[in-house]
Amino acid sequence: MRSSIVFRRGDEHPAPTRSPVVLALDTDDLDQALDWAERAGPAIGMVKVGLELFCAHGDRAVRALTDEGHRVMLDLKLHDIPATVARAARAAADLEVELVTVHALGGPAMLAAAVTAASDRSAVAAVTVLTSHDEAELGAIGLAGAPALAERLARLALDAGCQALVCSPREASSLRALASPDVQLVCPGVRPRSSAGADTPDPRGVVGDDQARVATPAEAVRAGADWLVVGRPITRAADPAAAARALRDQALAARAVPPR
């Protein structure tokens, strides 16, 4: 079975047992972020530093997490003119982050500039369609059809040399078919399975959930996801460590089942 998860530093576990969970540290409190990451421990394979944490603490947040041994996905969704994005991607690579995100909507020149600037020191992950967008939301901004749009943007990103794609689990299967095995698929919008045992997302969701296109860890892995980005189902759980382990175990169990 394929496994295109890429690690560049200090792998301690063979590919089938590495956690594919990326813990989203969606807070502006660095101490809280460090605590969440520590409590999740080996149940996660990477942490995500997004706009909240980076705007509050900048590169200090990234360095504090890497100093603790965490791999970092810097999720700033860069989207600007090519020269500006290139300088930002170069700065992210200087921080030794594993992944830095850019918006595929920025176009071919911007995507290529980011890849060149990161210079293989960090993988550039192109965001296709945000998981918060449903068809009504896309229609309001003059776009339609999340699956077709994600595929079109993925092709642009791959042609530009992006090493990773960010998509909802619902588009993962079609994008996996487009991409070579060494391209990583990163899927936000992953939610725990129903407590009834069915392999469907828990209908209760989480407080403040704004995700529109979601799937369970098992569904996402079977669709071809390499990384599962999860925040509130872990960080807002009564026992974050147990919640992280449960999500990891669901994903690893699905990875261990040969495709039909």
Description:
- The chain is an alpha/beta fold and 260 residues long.
- It has a single domain, classed as Aldolase class I (TIM Barrel, Alpha-Beta Barrel).
- The protein has eleven helices and eight strands.
- It has an eight-stranded parallel β-barrel, surrounded by eight helices.
- Strand 1, helix 1 (30-40) and strand 2 form a beta-alpha-beta unit.
- Helix 4 (82-94) runs parallel beside helix 5 and helix 7 (146-159) crosses helix 8 (169-178).
- The longest helix has 17 residues, at 240-256.
Q: What proportion of the residues form beta strands (DSSP E)?
A: 5-15%
Radius of gyration: 17 Å
The coarse overall form would be: globular
What is the structural class? alpha/beta
Report, as a whole number of angstroms, the end-to-end distance: 11 Å
Task: Report the strand count.
Answer: 8
**Domain module tally:** 1
**Biggest sheet features:** 8 strands, parallel, barrel
Mean pLDDT score: 86
Provide the CATH architecture.
Alpha-Beta Barrel
Q: List the helices and strands in order.
A: EHEHHEHEHEHHEHEHEHH
| CATH fourth-tier homologous superfamily | Aldolase class I
Poorly predicted runs are 1-14, 201-211
For this structure, the CATH topology is TIM Barrel
For this structure, what is the CATH class?
A: Alpha Beta
Helix amount: 40-55%
Strand order of the largest sheet: 1-2-3-4-5-6-7-8
